[in-house]
Structure formats: structure tokens, C-alpha cells
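Sequence in, structure out. Go.
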Amino acid sequence: MSGSNDAKENSHNKARTSPYPGSKVERSQVPNEKVGWVVEWQDYNPVEYTAVSVLAGPRWADPQISESSFSPKFNEKDGHVERKSQNGLYEIENGRPRNPAGRTGLVGRGLLGRWGPNHAADPIITRWKRDSSGNKISHPVSGKNILQFVAIKRKDCGEWAIPGGMVDPGEKISATLKREFGEEALNSLQKSSAEKREIEEQLHKLFNQEQLVIYKGYVDDPRNTDNAWMETEAVNYHDETGEIMDNLNLEAGDDAGKVKWVDISDKLKLYASHSHFIKLVAEKRDAHWSEDSETD
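Output:
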């Protein structure tokens, strides 16, 4: 299933929720049938909102479109800033990029730093659930082995999530995946240099083995607006024997409040599109997902 189809099929539900995260701002309501830009809607009157933290001009944020010194190159690599979308070309209207998945009821950038796509990377670290003797545990109903992944509890909204984060300008996605996992799930920022070296050694083993790119593209995210949206590359790194992760202590850090191994199943309630990514991992690894055999 391609990213662009996903964006349309989901009708980006989370991208239309109110109030907007971290604010009391209520979006204009967008009914399902009016999400797509192809549908004429003369009376569409979205609310304008860009967070003060973004307008303050931190290094991760663009200036306002109206600033004369700012002339972004949309749909291409703009210096160190990647303004290409994983979903192909997006339209520019009145100098502003237009969300490829449709209307959200809000214009401006909200909490997002970049006009257009804001790129993130989501590392999905998995292992098989095992008993005390080291044998894989299968689910009593589906008969399939149970897969576990490392989840963090986000400080901003309290939801469980994949420990991902934003791609820094000029940074390779593979570096972001490793950095974010270290910072959020291993608290690497607070470690001594000797501990950091040990963590780096184990992460090198984990991130240098076979990997599965699970998803690339638009994400249905509550921070999205008509002019700024989240995109991600979700990549699964699987520790088949569990030995690498046995040498690493999970410890929440940076944006994470808690961190733990979570059993994968359709009962998970996760942040943004993360449940969808986790389901794709379970399918690719032929692991347990649902007790209902009809779901496949």
C-alpha cells in the first residue's frame, strides 16, 4: 500500500482533532467529504495558528513566509533542509505548501518548524517474547510467536509511541534512527563517556544488521496543518536472538517519560499512525497480531 493511498484512505482523522496540541485553538470543522482539495468549498475558513515557540525563530524552524529574506525552494533539497515529500510533488498556493492529504481546518504551522513536510524517523526495535528457558512464546489463540517492541511514553501527550524524532538538517535518516533510539530509550544524553561508548558499540551491532523499511510518507498526526505536516520513515531492526538488547538497559530520556518492552497485538493504542506501523511489522515477521482469524 503506497503512502499516498494511505493518506487519502485515513482521511487524516488525527490531523483534524481539536483543540490543537499544546493550545486551546479549535480547528474549523472539516467533514469527511470535504477533506480532499479536489472538492470545491468556497466557504472554507480555516483558523490561522503558529505556536509562539515556532515564531520565536529557533534553529529548527523556518521564518514566516511573509519575511522578504525567506525564499524557500519547495519540492527540492533546499541547502541542508529536505523540502521534498516522500509522497511526490505537493502544490504551492499563495506561496504556501498545501497538505497533500487534504484540509485540516487550520493554516499556518502550528507546532511544526518547517513549511511543507517535516521529516521524522521512527526506529522499531523488536525481539521475540521468550520464557525463562529462552524459548519463544506463541499466542494460545493465533498460534503465532509474540513479537515485542521498545515503546516510550511521550511526555507531551502521555501516549505510548515508537521512540522516534525529527531528522536534523543534513542528517542521514539512518543516523537519526540510531540517535533518537539512544536518546529516548537508553537516556544516552545523560551517560558518562565510557557508558556512551558501550551503548554506541551495542547500537552499532543492532543498527548494522538486516533492516526492514516498514513505511515512508505522510503521517496522520495531530500537529498537521494545511501548510505543514509530518512525514516519517519507519524502519524495523530485529534482534532475532535477543542478545544485543540483553546488553542494553532501557532507560527513558529526552522526550520520553517511560520506556518498556511491549507485546505486539491489535489491542495496542499508540500515538499518531504508530499502531499501523507496528501492524505492518507483525505481518512482515509473521508474528501474532490478532485473535480474530478474519482480520488477515
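Check: Helices lie at 3-9, 52-55, 173-185, 193-207, 243-246, 274-284. The radius of gyration is 20 Å.
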